[in-house]
Amino acid sequence: MTKSMQTTEDSIKVFKALADPIRLAIIRYLNQLNHEVSCGEISQVMKISKTSGSYHFKILQEAELISVHKVAREKYVTLDRSTFDRYFTHFWQNL
Amino acid sequence: MTKSMQTTEDSIKVFKALADPIRLAIIRYLNQLNHEVSCGEISQVMKISKTSGSYHFKILQEAELISVHKVAREKYVTLDRSTFDRYFTHFWQNL
DNA sequence: AAGATAGTTCAAATATCTTTGAACTATCTA
DNA sequence: TAGATAGTTCAAAGATATTTGAACTATCTT
After folding, report:
1. Residue A4: which pLDDT band, with cuts at 50, 70 and 90?
2. Which of A54, A78, B15, B68 is deepest in the core (most CB within 10 A)?
3. Quick one: fold of A8-94?
4. Residues in domain HTH arsR-type (chains A, B) (predicted)?
5. What is the pLDDT of residues A7-61, one digit of tens each?
6. Could you tell me which residues come within 8 angstroms of residue B76 by beta carbon, excluding any fewer than 6 positions away?
7. Does the beta-carbon distance from A91 to B88 stay under 8 Å?
8. Which nucleotide is nearest to B74 (CA to C1')?
9. Does A31 reach chain B within 8 Å, measured CB to CB?
Protein backbone atom coordinates (compact mmCIF):
# COMPACT_ATOMS: atom_id res chain seq x y z
CA MET A 1 0.00 0.00 0.00
CA THR A 2 1.67 3.19 -1.17
CA LYS A 3 1.15 6.50 0.62
CA SER A 4 -0.28 9.49 -1.26
CA MET A 5 1.59 12.70 -2.17
CA GLN A 6 4.05 14.16 0.27
CA THR A 7 4.28 17.89 0.85
CA THR A 8 7.48 19.89 1.23
CA GLU A 9 6.68 20.11 4.94
CA ASP A 10 6.62 16.35 5.17
CA SER A 11 10.06 16.20 3.56
CA ILE A 12 11.41 18.83 5.91
CA LYS A 13 10.05 16.88 8.85
CA VAL A 14 11.79 13.72 7.65
CA PHE A 15 15.14 15.35 6.89
CA LYS A 16 15.10 17.31 10.15
CA ALA A 17 14.45 14.06 11.98
CA LEU A 18 17.47 12.52 10.27
CA ALA A 19 19.69 15.53 10.92
CA ASP A 20 20.68 14.68 14.47
CA PRO A 21 23.38 12.36 15.80
CA ILE A 22 21.25 10.84 18.54
CA ARG A 23 18.38 10.09 16.22
CA LEU A 24 20.73 8.63 13.64
CA ALA A 25 22.21 6.41 16.35
CA ILE A 26 18.71 5.27 17.30
CA ILE A 27 17.98 4.42 13.68
CA ARG A 28 21.28 2.55 13.42
CA TYR A 29 20.47 0.58 16.56
CA LEU A 30 16.97 -0.30 15.38
CA ASN A 31 18.34 -1.31 12.00
CA GLN A 32 20.87 -3.68 13.56
CA LEU A 33 18.40 -5.37 15.87
CA ASN A 34 15.65 -5.29 13.28
CA HIS A 35 12.82 -5.86 15.76
CA GLU A 36 10.76 -3.93 18.28
CA VAL A 37 12.71 -2.34 21.11
CA SER A 38 11.42 -0.41 24.09
CA CYS A 39 12.13 3.31 24.43
CA GLY A 40 13.69 2.66 27.82
CA GLU A 41 16.22 0.22 26.43
CA ILE A 42 17.20 2.61 23.67
CA SER A 43 17.54 5.55 26.04
CA GLN A 44 19.83 3.45 28.23
CA VAL A 45 21.97 2.35 25.30
CA MET A 46 22.18 5.93 24.00
CA LYS A 47 22.86 7.22 27.51
CA ILE A 48 20.26 9.96 27.32
CA SER A 49 17.67 11.02 29.88
CA LYS A 50 14.16 9.70 29.53
CA THR A 51 12.89 13.20 28.84
CA SER A 52 15.34 13.61 26.02
CA GLY A 53 14.46 10.15 24.74
CA SER A 54 10.80 11.00 24.77
CA TYR A 55 11.53 14.12 22.74
CA HIS A 56 13.56 12.29 20.11
CA PHE A 57 11.06 9.45 19.76
CA LYS A 58 8.30 11.95 19.19
CA ILE A 59 10.26 13.57 16.38
CA LEU A 60 11.01 10.23 14.72
CA GLN A 61 7.41 9.20 15.12
CA GLU A 62 6.00 12.40 13.65
CA ALA A 63 8.27 11.93 10.67
CA GLU A 64 6.89 8.39 10.44
CA LEU A 65 10.39 6.98 10.51
CA ILE A 66 9.44 4.71 13.39
CA SER A 67 6.19 3.08 14.28
CA VAL A 68 5.05 2.61 17.80
CA HIS A 69 3.40 -0.19 19.65
CA LYS A 70 2.33 0.48 23.21
CA VAL A 71 2.08 -2.44 25.62
CA ALA A 72 0.82 -1.39 29.03
CA ARG A 73 3.55 0.80 30.57
CA GLU A 74 6.03 0.35 27.78
CA LYS A 75 6.36 1.72 24.30
CA TYR A 76 8.04 -0.34 21.63
CA VAL A 77 9.36 1.14 18.43
CA THR A 78 10.48 -0.26 15.08
CA LEU A 79 11.76 1.35 11.94
CA ASP A 80 9.12 2.18 9.39
CA ARG A 81 11.18 1.25 6.36
CA SER A 82 8.49 2.26 3.91
CA THR A 83 9.02 5.89 4.85
CA PHE A 84 12.76 5.69 4.23
CA ASP A 85 12.00 4.05 0.93
CA ARG A 86 9.50 6.73 0.02
CA TYR A 87 11.89 9.59 0.73
CA PHE A 88 15.12 8.02 -0.44
CA THR A 89 14.31 5.75 -3.33
CA HIS A 90 11.79 8.17 -4.79
CA PHE A 91 13.46 11.43 -3.85
CA TRP A 92 13.67 12.89 -7.34
CA GLN A 93 10.19 11.80 -8.32
CA ASN A 94 8.66 13.39 -5.25
CA LEU A 95 10.76 16.52 -5.18
CA MET B 1 35.04 6.97 -8.90
CA THR B 2 33.38 6.15 -5.60
CA LYS B 3 33.97 8.27 -2.52
CA SER B 4 35.45 6.67 0.60
CA MET B 5 33.62 6.10 3.90
CA GLN B 6 31.28 8.73 5.19
CA THR B 7 31.19 9.63 8.86
CA THR B 8 28.10 10.32 10.93
CA GLU B 9 29.03 13.98 10.78
CA ASP B 10 28.96 13.88 7.00
CA SER B 11 25.47 12.40 7.13
CA ILE B 12 24.29 15.03 9.58
CA LYS B 13 25.68 17.72 7.31
CA VAL B 14 23.78 16.31 4.34
CA PHE B 15 20.47 15.83 6.15
CA LYS B 16 20.69 19.25 7.79
CA ALA B 17 21.29 20.75 4.37
CA LEU B 18 18.15 19.03 3.10
CA ALA B 19 16.08 20.03 6.12
CA ASP B 20 15.19 23.54 4.99
CA PRO B 21 12.44 24.75 2.65
CA ILE B 22 14.62 27.27 0.82
CA ARG B 23 17.37 24.76 0.17
CA LEU B 24 14.87 22.16 -0.96
CA ALA B 25 13.42 24.73 -3.35
CA ILE B 26 16.91 25.44 -4.70
CA ILE B 27 17.45 21.73 -5.26
CA ARG B 28 14.09 21.44 -6.97
CA TYR B 29 14.94 24.36 -9.24
CA LEU B 30 18.35 22.96 -10.15
CA ASN B 31 16.82 19.57 -10.80
CA GLN B 32 14.26 21.02 -13.21
CA LEU B 33 16.74 23.08 -15.18
CA ASN B 34 19.41 20.40 -14.97
CA HIS B 35 22.30 22.70 -15.86
CA GLU B 36 24.52 25.28 -14.23
CA VAL B 37 22.73 28.32 -12.83
CA SER B 38 24.20 31.42 -11.22
CA CYS B 39 23.66 32.09 -7.52
CA GLY B 40 22.21 35.47 -8.42
CA GLU B 41 19.53 33.98 -10.63
CA ILE B 42 18.54 31.49 -7.98
CA SER B 43 18.41 34.11 -5.24
CA GLN B 44 16.13 36.20 -7.45
CA VAL B 45 13.84 33.29 -8.21
CA MET B 46 13.72 32.32 -4.53
CA LYS B 47 13.22 35.95 -3.53
CA ILE B 48 15.90 35.90 -0.88
CA SER B 49 18.64 38.42 -0.14
CA LYS B 50 22.09 37.82 -1.55
CA THR B 51 23.45 37.36 1.97
CA SER B 52 20.91 34.71 2.70
CA GLY B 53 21.60 33.09 -0.65
CA SER B 54 25.30 33.05 0.06
CA TYR B 55 24.59 31.32 3.38
CA HIS B 56 22.40 28.63 1.85
CA PHE B 57 24.78 27.94 -1.04
CA LYS B 58 27.60 27.48 1.42
CA ILE B 59 25.62 24.90 3.35
CA LEU B 60 24.68 23.00 0.21
CA GLN B 61 28.25 23.16 -0.97
CA GLU B 62 29.74 21.93 2.28
CA ALA B 63 27.34 19.01 2.16
CA GLU B 64 28.57 18.41 -1.40
CA LEU B 65 25.02 18.49 -2.68
CA ILE B 66 26.00 21.11 -5.23
CA SER B 67 29.21 21.75 -7.06
CA VAL B 68 30.46 25.15 -7.88
CA HIS B 69 32.07 26.69 -10.90
CA LYS B 70 33.28 30.23 -10.59
CA VAL B 71 33.52 32.37 -13.72
CA ALA B 72 34.93 35.81 -13.03
CA ARG B 73 32.36 37.62 -10.88
CA GLU B 74 29.77 34.94 -10.98
CA LYS B 75 29.34 31.60 -9.32
CA TYR B 76 27.49 28.82 -11.06
CA VAL B 77 26.12 25.83 -9.25
CA THR B 78 24.83 22.41 -10.30
CA LEU B 79 23.50 19.48 -8.38
CA ASP B 80 26.07 16.92 -7.40
CA ARG B 81 23.89 13.89 -7.99
CA SER B 82 26.52 11.44 -6.85
CA THR B 83 26.15 12.71 -3.30
CA PHE B 84 22.40 12.22 -3.32
CA ASP B 85 22.99 8.77 -4.67
CA ARG B 86 25.55 8.02 -2.03
CA TYR B 87 23.30 9.04 0.85
CA PHE B 88 19.95 7.88 -0.48
CA THR B 89 20.57 4.77 -2.51
CA HIS B 90 23.11 3.43 -0.07
CA PHE B 91 21.62 4.73 3.15
CA TRP B 92 21.36 1.40 4.95
CA GLN B 93 24.76 0.21 3.82
CA ASN B 94 26.44 3.34 5.05
CA LEU B 95 24.47 3.76 8.25
C1' DA C 1 -2.22 0.16 49.53
C1' DA C 2 2.71 1.77 49.04
C1' DG C 3 6.58 2.07 46.36
C1' DA C 4 8.90 1.19 42.02
C1' DT C 5 9.02 1.58 36.94
C1' DA C 6 7.93 3.44 31.97
C1' DG C 7 6.93 7.17 29.85
C1' DT C 8 4.87 12.17 29.08
C1' DT C 9 4.41 17.11 29.69
C1' DC C 10 5.76 21.66 30.95
C1' DA C 11 8.54 25.72 31.32
C1' DA C 12 13.11 27.50 31.74
C1' DA C 13 17.85 27.38 30.18
C1' DT C 14 21.03 26.58 26.47
C1' DA C 15 22.56 25.80 22.02
C1' DT C 16 22.16 26.07 17.16
C1' DC C 17 20.36 28.02 12.83
C1' DT C 18 18.79 31.81 9.84
C1' DT C 19 18.20 36.63 8.46
C1' DT C 20 19.68 41.23 8.26
C1' DG C 21 22.44 45.26 6.91
C1' DA C 22 26.85 47.29 6.49
C1' DA C 23 31.35 46.97 4.79
C1' DC C 24 34.25 44.57 1.83
C1' DT C 25 36.72 42.27 -2.72
C1' DA C 26 36.68 41.49 -7.44
C1' DT C 27 34.97 42.15 -11.94
C1' DC C 28 32.56 44.54 -15.48
C1' DT C 29 30.93 48.69 -18.30
C1' DA C 30 30.75 53.34 -19.89
C1' DT D 1 38.65 56.06 -13.90
C1' DA D 2 33.95 56.09 -11.73
C1' DG D 3 30.05 53.60 -10.97
C1' DA D 4 27.49 49.31 -11.30
C1' DT D 5 27.18 44.30 -10.47
C1' DA D 6 28.15 39.47 -8.20
C1' DG D 7 29.24 37.62 -4.37
C1' DT D 8 31.44 37.17 0.60
C1' DT D 9 32.13 38.18 5.46
C1' DC D 10 31.02 39.83 9.94
C1' DA D 11 28.44 40.61 14.05
C1' DA D 12 23.96 41.37 15.99
C1' DA D 13 19.16 40.07 16.19
C1' DG D 14 15.61 36.78 15.81
C1' DA D 15 13.87 32.16 15.38
C1' DT D 16 14.15 27.11 16.32
C1' DA D 17 15.85 23.02 18.41
C1' DT D 18 17.53 20.46 22.38
C1' DT D 19 18.34 19.46 27.28
C1' DT D 20 17.08 19.65 31.96
C1' DG D 21 14.49 18.77 36.21
C1' DA D 22 10.14 18.67 38.45
C1' DA D 23 5.58 17.14 38.48
C1' DC D 24 2.49 14.10 36.46
C1' DT D 25 -0.29 9.52 34.63
C1' DA D 26 -0.46 4.78 34.26
C1' DT D 27 1.06 0.29 35.25
C1' DC D 28 3.48 -3.13 37.87
C1' DT D 29 5.12 -5.49 42.27
C1' DT D 30 5.04 -6.70 47.06
Report:
1. low
2. B15
3. Arc Repressor Mutant, subunit A (1.10.10)
4. 3-95
5. 999 999 999 999 999 999 999 999 999 999 999 999 999 999 999 999 999 999 9
6. B36, B37, B38, B39, B68, B69, B70
7. yes
8. D6
9. yes
